[in-house]
Write a structure and sequence with these properties.
about 240 residues, 8 helices, alpha/beta, about 15% strand, Glycerol-3-phosphate (1)-acyltransferase
Length: about 240
């Protein structure tokens, strides 16, 4: 059965390559987003991941905002894209992944090299311009993945883009659960685990549900990026039922 799943994923990746190469250059941004959303939904279906969107914003959400989320797995980008297609800021390592890295780039992912302050500044300035152009930008402020039940400190640098662009920060929470509503261990993508090992673990495991939860937006006017980062992390941890 797992070989059939891998074969379906191979065919789906091939379809994504063809779509990116042939359709993306000739269609507009709205159509591109729709294609990314549909492809991401189909990928999650093949991986037996059900995506559920929950709105916990209490009406305090923004259409134009910088989206941030906790980071659990390589699945995160595609799970969020099933609900809100975004241009993600992701670690440069993802670009080297066979096929999937190229597809992420074509879908608008912005790759950031670790530990390069000049690179962070360049990306930050680009984010401001893209937000002004109406693009939906998202990033994972932990900087790397963490096992479920853990939220690493949020790096504050890229929060400055929301302040400069004069838009709120819109926090999201990602949670992967089993049939009993408990954290699904197969979602964790940490340590030295490779993409292939993670994919195999997910395909062999019982079906999981990915919950995408929208939290109240955080105003940025007159705020400092470190304070916004702390507030965003606090909201995420509270939603996950974790203590500081």
């Amino acid at each position: 059965m797992i070989f059939w799943h891998f074969f379906r994923i191979f065919l789906h990746l091939l379809a994504g390559l063809l779509t990116s190469a042939l359709l993306f250059p000739i269609v507009g941004a709205v159509r591109r987003e729709a294609l990314v959303q549909r492809w991401s939904r189909q990928l999650m279906a093949i991986c037996t991941v059900d995506v559920v969107f929950k709105d916990a914003s209490q009406g305090h959400f923004a259409e134009r905002a910088l989206i941030v989320s906790n980071h659990v797995s390589w699945l995160d980008i595609f799970v969020i894209n099933t609900v809100h297609p975004c241009h993600f800021v992701a670690k440069a390592d993802i670009r080297s992944w066979p096929v999937l890295g190229w597809l992420c780039e074509k879908a608008g992912t912005i790759f950031l090299a670790r530990g390069k302050q000049r690179e962070v500044r360049r990306i930050y300035e680009g984010l401001v311009h893209q937000i002004h152009d109406g693009k939906r930008i998202a990033f994972f402020p932990e900087g790397t993945t963490a096992a479920q039940g853990t939220v690493l400190p949020f790096h504050a640098n890229l929060f400055e883009a929301a302040i400069e662009a004069k838009v709120p920060v819109q926090p999201f929470v990602l949670r992967y659960v089993d049939a009993q509503g408990k954290f699904h261990a197969a979602a964790d993508f940490i340590g030295d685990m490779t993409f292939a090992e993670s994919m195999s673990t997910i395909l062999k495991a019982p079906r999981m549900t990915a919950e995408v939860i929208r939290l109240p937006a955080i105003a940025t006017e007159g705020a400092h990026r470190r304070d916004i980062a702390l507030q965003a992390r606090e909201l995420v941890m509270r939603e996950l039922g974790l203590s500081q």
